[in-house]
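User: quick one
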Amino acid sequence: MDTPIVERTLDVAPDEAQRMPVTFQINGEKRHFEVEAWTSLLDLLREHCHLTGTKKGCDHGQCGACTAIVDGQRINTCLALAVVRDGASITTIEGLAEGDRLHPVQQAFIDHDAFQCGYCTPGQICSAVAMLAEGHVKCADDIREQMSGNLCRCGAYTNIVAAMLDAADLADGQPDAQGACS
Amino acid sequence: MNRFSYTRANAVADAIAQHRANAAAAFIAGGTNLVDLLREDVARPKVLVDINRLPLKQIEATPDGGLKIGALVTNSAVAYNETVAARYPLLADAILAGASAQIRNVATVGGNLLQRTRCHYFYDVGTPCNKREPGSGCPAMNGINRIHAILGASDQCIAVHPSDMCVALAALDATVHLDGKDGARTLAFADFHRLPGDTPNLDTNLRDDELITAIELPKQGFASHHAYVKVRDRASYAFALVSAALGVELDGDDIVAAHCALGGVAHKPWRCPEAEAQLRGKPLNAATVREFAAALLRGAQGRPGNAFKIDLARRVIARAFELATQRSFEEAAS
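Assistant: Done. Structure below.
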């Protein structure tokens, strides 16, 4: 679907701003915007698309709450300028389920009670979905390393790792004496 | 965030011309450091020249047996490249020790070389900083300096270069390919970054309007005996307090050649060719490692917050030799 959407931005008077036309495929839908050069992909998702599942935590790339999947790769949307990413295909937490059927990683988070306050959860889940697609994890320690860009201040890590092991269909393996995952 | 205008370049010459057209222009590639600096008011370009469409995304073999990596290849793409993993595992290990998966997916090779220090005072525009505002002072000298330099610092600046990848590139004797208004040129990796001296505002020897186009690795990748050892305040996703990138070539128990660069200790990856030359032909044992560490760390100066790094660096070097050569040099660290 090709829906032209032009919205006013919030942070500058229109006559001062250079506006750039950009187009994104967001959760399967093609959408057009005009944005200032300094609009981050995170602000575009939240303020222009009202897709507020993607969270603003630190706005410095340190916490991972803003993680979305852009052109197949997990990235910090707070550190991406929308104009630079023009043309990208974006999947946010809102785009993971198929109708009423949750993505297996979403279901695993519920099954394992893998959150408390939930603020980091959309970023954790998007990061985990992309991580499993990357194919570099074989055990719990791999998951801990590969997920280090997603912080959980509630400290729900134990259940987050359990959820990901479940979603990845991995046993709770620890590295053996040689350092390889068992 | 500061306001700026934005242009896109489609060719290297186009990018350089657009950069030249405005004195306050900055190139943007992955932007994982630059966007943060813009948001913090540390970087103040008037124009961003987007170079992401330039054809600098190839990893290709060179005629003399090396490997040339385009400046726009992402850190992840380098680390998981089959040739890099097989022939330059030291580089792959260093990259994967840095940042997070999200950042490695976006950050580029060229941008990694140009990332700025994470000195707290450099980032805090409410404090003086000789690197950010030359002549304004350096609060790190007598302030919070746990993460700061023990080698090569000046009375103007004790910041350290934050990269892991660059420490491996230094140890591997990489070459930096540049292009600019006066044409293309190359710099040895050791000549790319600068020590702070009286001009701590300059991190590198890149000329005005010059663009990094590629990194070239020589044939020798130390695939048989290598180690990247990184010590930091948490298990993952933190900058190095001290790191060491080591490649060793052995003939039995004798050292044929060894390259060792340290991260987290200076304004650039720290190497000492004279100390490495002394290793040639020496038997690989604890005394050799201990003497080498002492030579590499000669002149190290600690401050109240970071004096621990001198002893830590000795131990990190010894650990790197242990891991690279599958031997034990416990007494070398003491």
